[in-house]
Amino acid sequence: MFYALMARNAQPHVVIAGAGFGGLAAARALAKAPVRITLVDRTNHHLFQPLLYQVAMAGLSPADIAAPIRAILRRQKNLTVLLSEATGIDLTRRTVLLSEGSILYDYLVLATGGRTSYFGHDAWEKYAPGLKDLDDAVEIRRRVLLAFEAAEKESEPERRRQLLTFVVVGGGPTGVELAGAIAELARYVLASDFRHIDPRQTRIILVEAGPRILPMFPEDLAAKAVRQLERLGVSVRTRAKVTAIDESGLHLAPERIAARTVLWAAGVQPTGLTRRLGAPLDPAGRVIIEPDLTLPGHPEAYAIGDMAVFLHQGGKPLPGVAPVAIQMGSHAARNIFRTLDGAPRVPFRYVDRGSMATIGRSAAIAQIGRLRLDGFVAWLAWLVVHLFSLIGFRNRVAVLLNWAWSYATYQRGARLITGRRLSLVPHRPVPPEEEAGAPRGEFLVR
Amino acid sequence: MFYALMARNAQPHVVIAGAGFGGLAAARALAKAPVRITLVDRTNHHLFQPLLYQVAMAGLSPADIAAPIRAILRRQKNLTVLLSEATGIDLTRRTVLLSEGSILYDYLVLATGGRTSYFGHDAWEKYAPGLKDLDDAVEIRRRVLLAFEAAEKESEPERRRQLLTFVVVGGGPTGVELAGAIAELARYVLASDFRHIDPRQTRIILVEAGPRILPMFPEDLAAKAVRQLERLGVSVRTRAKVTAIDESGLHLAPERIAARTVLWAAGVQPTGLTRRLGAPLDPAGRVIIEPDLTLPGHPEAYAIGDMAVFLHQGGKPLPGVAPVAIQMGSHAARNIFRTLDGAPRVPFRYVDRGSMATIGRSAAIAQIGRLRLDGFVAWLAWLVVHLFSLIGFRNRVAVLLNWAWSYATYQRGARLITGRRLSLVPHRPVPPEEEAGAPRGEFLVR
After folding, report:
1. pLDDT digits (tens, 9 = 90+) for B101-158
2. What is the tens place of the pLDDT at every residue in B333-365?
3. Cβ-defined contact of A401 to B398 (cutoff 8 Å)
4. What is the pLDDT at residue B9?
């Protein structure tokens, strides 16, 4: 018996599902715990999601904001990384079902995060991609850059206008950042690169169903964000509900906007795992957790981050941002530590250090405690915070250099159209007879 | 008549198909010519192919070795960039057929390069991808990294061995570079990142059908390359002809090698355009060009680079390398200049400045004139030459920093598994009953 307790395999087994901000924080906080940890993720990298929009807008490369999970945790000897997807949890048998095999646990930390939600309109995904992982970002980059290329070849004014119209749905931080970044791309980066179109004529529309954008910010700061967006050429439409999206544009009842490129930043829902848990869910599908972050009736199983909803601190759900997930991850680890020591679990308290959103070059808003910043100062604060939050020295240097270079040259370092997916921008073939007629774009006539 | 000659559209129209080394050199050399230029490419970027294998091996990001064609040529006002694919040429009507529409020319420079050749075995492509563009590189990176991940999860020794066996077919510079880079990845980068496998046990086999690798180099230098490869753990098999490739390995008559990952670096063939030209081709399908680089009977149409074969200087075909394409591009531009001035076209002469191949960290071979280098000095020469040949200040800085970081830390900056293509590494599901039995890899038992 003594021998069995001392054997390595007798150490309690902690399984962490998901290596996002929450899962990684939990794993690191358990580095010195007398446990074996298995960290399961379906990708091989931890992703710094707050900068994902910059990959979508060709400013950064995927590798600048992602780091291999194995490399991050190489020296943590009590931890095994497993590239696999958690497809279900058997809470009574304490088993995680994986895409291959299954795995038993003593303690479980669920941190599988969220995915794009179309509020029941899954058919819209094809026309309005969301932004949750690197593949999404590269696909959005491809679509945005291809739209300018197609416009350059299009001589019919209506079609050209449609190709140069970009709609971003959702007025949260991601939507604001995407809209601002498209505006910068069109106004500065691409401005002198085309011969038949003027990218500065690009129309960018930010659509929000609610009464105002950035509802998590004070009203005066959000109003400043609107002004900064409008200065960049983004038109902001609030109280505008999308009723249909197809390949040629979208319906904002009663209006129709002809746009070839629609991006979706309107909603996040938990990964499908939550619905198979048998635990109580809120209407958005998130797991309702106890004050100590465990699942009701399962003190050995924790759920954190975007897949969970924490309703105890003041009753308002915590926002789906990185600091919440990180603090929850550390707290779950702390409660596991306490349980191993025979101490009771303690309730979680979120320490809000503020929030920020960037709009574009020298434009941002920030709320840090009672301090409210906007414009250049807020933008600088945003840069510093994000640079220091990045994981890995290499990534920090790479991002800093890319930003400095972009700022100085008005260029973007990753303006690549890659990926062999079928183009969503069909080109009208020009019959040879037409060539002899009126000039249809200079390149088609001698 | 005078007016027509002075009008902008009356300037001769030069169409360049392909923005690789040859096409870009031709475009730049015509910057001050009294012509209008249309540069057609099916991608939006110029690719620095000599470093493509480093993207495939997770050392560099796609954006480090590619630059947007529009950005490179932004200031060249006599030039229009067109994102399109040249699907055919009507030499008598002086028309380039594009994937959309067509385009008339006065002078034509064909520089569409090459693609991977499987010598009639196109079915092998699925199992043994080639390396010609960024999508290829990202796909190879995905497969190589996934093979290690799958091996970590595999407890059956034979399957694990198969997953950790990598075969590179083709002993030219690309094959040597790929084999050396896989060896480095396994020996240094991944060495301490796994818990169930030791990546240093990886088998890497370089297969060459001819009597020796690197036939374009002197025999003693090639022999040194073999020794450097073997020191890294690559086994080199010459006179080994591949007779079959499938998902589980390849046949090297009479032997069979069980390998999950096979990479193809054995051959290049011109793009399909050449076969639709109606011009004389060599057995490899390349256009046989005149001493002045024009197509026989078409003094206004040039073919350069990998799609053409130049047999006049000593009778031996020129190698398919960047310096040949660049010199040909400048020469075609020079002959167009001369024709506009009423001067006769002059024959092309290739100035050979040497060749280099890199094997790995501090290991390379180089021949520069009569100078023969190997080991660290050759490797340093290789670094300097490639760094300075890169287009764009940003790319040079990015690559230099990535190299310095990799050299110092033995890490790779772009170790990402991305892309949603179907995995070629199927996993055997483990039935729950098996779990209770003998340990099948620690993570499957508590």
Report:
1. 899 999 999 999 999 999 999 999 999 999 999 999 999 999 999 999 999 999 999 9
2. 999 999 999 999 999 999 999 999 999 888 999
3. yes
4. 60
Name every chain B residue with its beta carbon within 8 A of the beta carbon of A5.
none
Interface contact flag, B134 A416, Cβ < 8 Å: yes
In this predicted model, what pLDDT tens digit does every residue of A53-98 receive, in sequence order? 999 999 999 999 999 999 999 999 999 999 999 999 999 999 999 9
**Å from A222 to nearest chain B CA?**
35
Are A101 and B195 inside 8 Å of each other by CB? no
Contact B414 A61 (CB under 8 A): yes
What's the CA gap between B192 and B411, in Å, rounded? 11
Residue B186 DSSP class: I
| Residue A360 identity (one-letter amino acid) | G
Query: Quick one: three-class SS letters along chain A?
Result: CHHHHHCHHHCCEEEEECCCHHHHHHHHHCCCCCCEEEEEECCCEEECHHHHHHHHCCCCCHHHCEEEHHHHCCCCCCEEEEECCEEEEECCCCEEEECCCEEECCEEEECCCEEECCCCCHHHHHCCCCCCCHHHHHHHHHHHHHHHHHHHHCCCHHHHHHHCEEEEECCCHHHHHHHHHHHHHHHHHCCCCCCCCCHHHCEEEEECCCCCCCCCCCHHHHHHHHHHHHHCCEEEECCCCEEEEECCEEEECCEEEECCEEEECCCEEECHHHHHCCCCECCCCCEECCCCCEECCEEEEEECHHHEECCCCCCCCCCCCHHHHHHHHHHHHHHHHHHHCCCCCCCCCCCCCCEEEEEECCEEEEEECCEEEEHHHHHHHHHHHHHHHCCCHHHHHHHHHHHHHHHHHCCCCCCCCCCCCCCCCCCCCCCHHHHHCCCCCHHHCC
Residue the block writes with tokens 């890490």: B411
Backbone dihedral angles phi then psi of residue A299, each to the nearest 5 degrees: -65, -10
Percent of chain A topping pLDDT 70: 92
| pLDDT at residue B298 in the model | 97
Q: pLDDT digit string (tens) for A369-405?
A: 889 999 999 999 999 999 999 988 889 999 999 999 9
ipTM of the complex: 0.89
User: Chain A contacts of B99, Cβ < 8 Å?
Assistant: 427
Task: Count CB neighbours of B442 within 10 A.
Answer: 16
Q: Do A401 and B397 touch (CB under 8 A)?
A: yes
Q: Which amino acid is at B57?
A: M
B380 touches chain A (CB under 8 A): no
What chain A residue is nearest to B411 in terms of C-alpha separation? A71
How many CB pairs below 8 A link A and B?
180
Chain B residues whose beta carbon lies within 8 Å of the beta carbon of residue A410: none
Q: Do B153 and A83 touch (CB under 8 A)?
A: yes
Best of A156, A300, A416 to disrupt the B interface (most B CBs within 10 Å) is: A416
Could you tell me which of A65, A96, A62 has the C-alpha nearest to residue A82? A96
Closest in B9, B61, B443 to A61, CB measured: B61
CB proximity B191 to A under 8 Å: no
Active site residues of B: 177
Predicted pLDDT at B234: 97
Question: Is any Cβ of chain B less than 8 angstroms from the Cβ of A135?
Answer: yes
Cα of A88 to nearest chain B Cα, Å: 14
pLDDT confidence tier of residue B420, bands split at 50, 70 and 90: low
Find how far residue A370's CA is from the centre of its chain.
Answer: 27
Q: Which of A152, A177, A208, A290 is catalytic?
A: A177
Contact B416 A103 (CB under 8 A): no
- What's the rounded mean pLDDT across residues B67-95? 96
Q: Do A135 and B103 touch (CB under 8 A)?
A: no
